[in-house]
Amino acid sequence: xxxxxxxxxxxxxxxxxxxxxxxxxxxxxxxxxxxxxxxxxxxxxxxxxxxxxxxxxxxxxxxxxxxxxxxxxxxxxxxxxxxxxxxxxxxxxxxxxxxxxxxxxxxxxxxxxxxxxxxxxxxxxxxxxxxxxxxxxxxxxxxxxxxxxxxxxxxxxxxxxxxxxxxxxxxxxxxxxxxxxxxxxxxxxxxxxxxxxxxxxxxxxxxxxxxxxxxxxxxxxxxx
Length: 224
Prior knowledge:
The protein has eleven helices and two strands; from the N terminus they run H-H-H-H-H-H-H-H-H-H-H-E-E. It is mainly α. Strands 1-2 form a two-stranded antiparallel sheet. The termini are far apart.
């Protein structure tokens, strides 16, 4: 909060987003989930070793191919996330089973971006890893492990920013949505409103899915 432009863009009051009890709960939940992810990494290490070779970044693909990979990954990961996220909200038992824990926090802040159930954590992991696995195992293309870690890192950074609670920060970090058509990229407020009003704004860093589905929120209500 050292930069005035960021500080002044706080979406919900700090007393809501930084409630001491919810902050403590978020930290406990995140630490639990990080330990779970660490365990997953050890369990699936043999699969990662087979699918994604290490040390072949310079020979696996050209610069253009890396760019194409990244764009396809970006779109496919967000599309799959949006489909699953929508189902979490539209199917009551699925919401209770997988997604309710994440909505303990009505005013997002960065720590709670990873505060969720193991089921939701796994579903998000599938969204992120779908295209790298498809690229490696179905298309038979060399997919360096370093590339997989890179897209994982980008995914985590995006999650932190879109839960930051500051609208001056953009989910895609280096992409300012205001320079593009309003239906293309989402803003941090887009996801903040999802937590505040619950139904709608299901997309991640791409707003286009909500515009297609008619689930864009305006003043807490879905746009008609």
